Amino acid sequence: HTAPVTALCPRPGGGFASGAGDTTIRLWDPRGQAIAVLQEHTAPITALCPLPGGGVASGAHDHSIRLWDLDGHCTHTTLLAAPVTSLITQGHLLIAGLLAPADLTQRFAC
Asked: Longest C-alpha distance within the chain, in Å?
């Protein structure tokens, strides 16, 4: 990364994902070696969350949530009304916190 890391989450098999202010997400193996750089967001990454099945969800200040498969390919993009501040899953439900004038959350199937 070329900017501070702002989000982390585990990946299957002991690796992890990191997101940063440089708009990139990096996938890391269990030894801490970078194995992929994901570059579809256009603003700083603010949230990462592991998905059922091993993928990763990412949220950013570009008002989007992106779903990534195990190989680092973006499989889905959802545009929202406000920047994403947090992500969590409950089973197959992805819940996003948004930066908005009021406490605002969105829920999506994942």
From this structure: 42
